[in-house]
Each structure stands twice: as C-alpha cells, then as structure tokens.
Design goal:
Number of helices: 9
Bound molecules: 2-acetamido-2-deoxy-beta-D-glucopyranose
Number of strands: 5
Mean pLDDT: 79
Low-confidence stretches: 1-8, 10-19, 182-188, 206-227
Length: about 230
C-alpha cells in the first residue's frame, strides 16, 4: 500500500521521469517531507550557508558534492546503511545537490531525489529556519531502519527474468522415490495347521466353518477372520 502510494507520488510529481535521479519541484519536495516520504533530507551547502538558514529538521551533509576532492567534508560513507532509502538533497538552486546525488548514485545509492534549493523553496513561500536542528538519519544508526528500506526497494524492483543463455535451466525436480508396498498392518501371523493354539479362536473357526452353508454374511465373517 505504502509502496503503491509512493509510486503514484513519484510518477505524478516528477519534473523529469527519465533520469535515475528524480527532480522534484519545491511543492513536491515540501509535500514529500510533510507526508514522510524521505528517509534522508540532506542539505549539501556549506556550514555558513546552513547556519544562515535551512529547511527545518534536515541532515547537514556539508559539501557532499566535493566528496573525493581534497577539501571534502561529508562523503557517501556518512550515509552508509541508507543505500536503499529515499534520499532527497537540496542546495541553493539544485546544482550542488545534483552533483552530490551523482556521487551517491556512483556509490550505489538507489532512491535519489533532487529537491532543488533554498532559492526555489523560499520563492514557493515555504519557511526556513536558523536554529540548530541537525537530524541523524535513522538508516545510518538503525539496522532495522536500513533493512526496511531494502525490503521496500526489493518489493518495488523484482529481479529481472533470467536470460536463457546466461543461466542453465533449473533442474527438473527429482522423481518421488517409489515406495515398496507397506507391510500389512497389523502383521499377519501364520497359523500352524492342525495345532490348536487358542481354544477360543478354534471355537470361532469351528463355528464359522459350520456357518458357511448358511449364507454370505457368514462367509464374509470367515474371510475377515482369514485376512
Ligand atoms: C522539527 O522537529 C521537531 C522535533 O521533532 C518538531 O517538533 C517540529 O515540528 C519539526 N519541524 C518541522 C517543520 O517539521
């Protein structure tokens, strides 16, 4: 249910549907936050820019777009555990966010959104704050939160059908072993002829033998006795 609504949300609101990194308008970004769509909301601007004003309750991933360069600050490692989670980044106007998202994409992150920047956000009339409210994403500290992202991703991205030449066909299921006929239960005990064993049983046999001439009912009794 949640996956479906998320899919509708994405497919309806994308500015670009072809890029692996989905671009969101500020309105869609704002609504996504309000609806709890994102596991990570990251600001990739500098410490000064973040301190001046930022969207409330985001994670400061300082200059993530410079990861791998000499003056790198935040790196994809800071989001380890969030590989399958929904991550939206923003900057001033979306350019550094795009670069940072490309770095995450190369590092194996799967669900990436560009929320553009505080410029578009403010123009759309949404608030910015100055307080220190840096959020530590759950997926970086909780294995369960991380696993939930992966389950959700796998549910939405079933493994593709196997290429015929790439994989040998699955072996036919082994035929069920032929069972030997089960021994009679209860086991039949051979009765020695002409040796009286059980007086009562002999009495019964005698009775049934004399009854044979009386009808089929008694014959059935005899057979039942012999089986
Ligand atoms: C930011 O987080 C605080 C504490 O969880 C919460 O009270 C507040 O409503 C949040 N602000 C926004 C804009 O989501």
């Amino acid at each position: 249910m949640k996956v479906c609504t998320l899919f509708l949300f994405i497919s309806h609101c994308l500015v670009s549907t072809q890029a692996a990194i989905k671009i969101l308008t500020s309105q869609t970004f704002h609504r996504g936050i309000a609806e709890g769509r994102f596991d990570v909301i990251g600001d990739v601007r500098s410490a000064e820019e973040y301190a001046f004003e930022h969207i409330a309750n985001v994670t400061h991933l300082e200059l993530l777009h410079l990861a791998g360069q000499a003056n790198e600050k935040a790196t994809p490692e800071d989001l380890a555990g969030c590989e399958f989670c929904h991550i939206v980044l923003y900057s001033s106007d979306g350019n550094r966010a795009r670069e940072a998202l490309q770095i995450l994409e190369q590092a194996g992150f799967k669900n990436l959104y560009n929320g553009l920047g505080v410029n578009q956000w403010a123009l759309a009339g949404f608030p910015l704050v100055t307080r220190s409210d840096n959020v530590i994403p759950q997926c970086t500290v909780s294995a369960r939160a991380s696993a939930r992202c992966e389950e959700r991703y796998n549910a939405n991205n079933p493994p593709s059908a196997p290429v015929p030449t790439a994989r040998p066909p699955a072996p036919a299921p082994a035929p069920a072993p032929v069972r030997p006929p089960s021994p009679a239960f209860p086991p039949t005990v051979p009765v020695k002829k002409n040796v009286p064993q059980n007086p009562d049983k002999d009495a019964l046999k005698l009775a049934t033998a004399t009854d044979i001439s009386r009808g089929s009912l008694n014959r059935r009794r005899v057979r039942g006795d012999q089986e």
